[in-house]
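Re: beginner question about structure tokens

> Can someone show what the tokenized structure looks like for a real chain? I only ever see the sequence side.

Sure, here's an example I had lying around. Input first:
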Amino acid sequence: MAQVDFKITNWERVEIPDDKLQEVIERIKNGTCTQASHLMDIGSYEGVVEDTGEQMFVEENNGYATIDVFDENGEPIFDNVPS
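And the corresponding structure tokens:
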């Protein structure tokens, strides 16, 4: 069976103790925290926030495909990058 993959963006949530909040804000400001995994030392990962998925477009993905079509063997046969 063939497959079609769609690239989307989602929000992730990390729960932070109140006494660590200012540290987290400083990490974000100085660029040392740019993703959820950068907070695992002081917070707990709560997962992807429900209903936050949004379609991603080629322009937002540095010109790379955001829709890929694969044949029954998993081989790519089409994507949405303009030719």
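Each token stands for a local structural state, so reading them left to right follows the chain. The chain has one domain: 3-79.
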